[in-house]
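Need tokens for this chain, all 258 residues.
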Amino acid sequence: MFISTMDLAKIYKDDSVLIIDARSYKDYSKSHIPGAVSLDLFSFHWADTSEKGLISFGEHMRKILSYAGVDENKKIIFYDNTTGMLAARGVWMCLYFSHPDVQMLDGGLSNWTGENQPTETESTIYKPSRLTTTIDPSIIIGFEELNENIGKVTIIDARSPEEFDGTTPRAARGGHIPTAKNIDWNNNLDDSGKLKSDEELESLYQIDKETEIVTYCQGAYRAANSYLSLKKIGFKNIKVYLGSWGEWGNDLNLPIEK
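Here are the structure tokens for all 258 residues:
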């Protein structure tokens, strides 16, 4: 699920490769990898994970990814400034649509430019496609299913300690989902903005790899990064809580801890 700058440099001009810049268009317009299209994934928050809400999410995101040119016949590579949460969200969404070949650039644009790889400022025109793959419901969870399984699954809160303990609420209520463990997603990265080694990640996530895990944050971006980090070191049964604290913290009927 990760590609190095060296390996990307060999294929980024290939017509069968679609590179997606997941940062804001403002950042994209200043400098981006040649041929990359802009898709500001932070614009697409989703805070309704009821059964109907998840169906709508699938329909909505399929159209957006298709418009950006994503289909199952292309190799898809997402990037942002580092091995960050925006590119991770893109990879996770493509995995949700069972895409067979999707990766994120390890180290992001900062490492790409740090190695003197080429960039450009001219926007790449979209070439819309049609993503027809089936949805994989095994990697997503809504609030109803999660609420029913508190105590049965291991919940990882990828937010900051201040968000976790309620000091920084960012919703109607501060705190966290009951039983959640706080492992800040920033700990997944090294000082250069790349993903840490498998050994370092193993030390960070000292959990039985057969455990069923749910990751969440504020809007399921940082949680997507933690999802990919866990997948990289061999965890298989992981779901992202799409609504995250933006939904849970604003629903007064759902339980919380501080």
